[in-house]
Amino acid sequence: MIHCLFNQNCLRLFLLLSVSIVNQTAFASVPPQGHPDADVLFTSFQVPSYGQGIEAEGVRRELGDFDYQSSRAQQAIIKHFGSTVRLKELKAIVESIRYYLGKKYGIALPKPSRNAKRNMPLLVKYIDEHYDHVVTIFSHISLCDKDKRRIPLLDARQYLEEHRLIEALDESVDPSTAPQ
Question: Nearest to residue 47, comparing CAs of 67, 71, 17, 27?
């Protein structure tokens, strides 16, 4: 943080390295008593809380009223990849599907937004927006470990049955529309 400090004789430019956070407000350290700049008043600035910054506002605006947890895309993700699939894995799946659809069928899905690549609810929204193309390919994809062994999805079907989502999901995906 760089501050311009005024004293009676001149303008000095200091690089302040010591900053403390108190009640979500950052204050630059005050010079000790007797220091030539001890009479200088330092400005403070508000540090936004987690989820209150500019990036978070953009994510909320992009999500709108989309409820990703109860969306059909999230249900399909859980059914095919389990409830513990990570953002990194889901991004790789989406990119693979985009590449496959482009090469095999000439279908050019748009790239996920910058925020969608960094935020699970937005990536689920992207999948939901392109549901017919993306989800039909899910059944042809398996998650594997580093030794290329398929990872069993023991929790996915159980989760869907417990939450009574399995019937709705089975009705929404028509296997006859899946690309061959």
Answer: 27
Calculate the alpha carbon distances from 97 to 131, 137, 172 in Å.
12, 7, 19
Residue type, 161: E
Whole-number pLDDT of residue 149 = 77
Cα 17–Cα 25–Cα 13 angle in degrees, nearest 5: 35
* Residues with pLDDT less than 70, the chain: 1-47, 154-180
**Which residue, chain included where needed, has tokens 């659809």?**
101
The rounded Cα 55 to chain-centroid distance in angstroms is: 10
Give the bridge partners for 14, in sequence order.
3
Q: How many C-beta atoms surround the C-beta of residue 109 within 10 A?
A: 16
Pairing mode, if any, of strands 2-6 and 11-15? antiparallel
The pLDDT of residue 59? 92
Comparing CA positions, the residue from 83, 97, 90, 76 lying closest to residue 170 is 76
Q: Where would I find the H helices in the chain?
A: 54-63, 72-81, 87-105, 120-129, 131-138, 154-162, 166-172
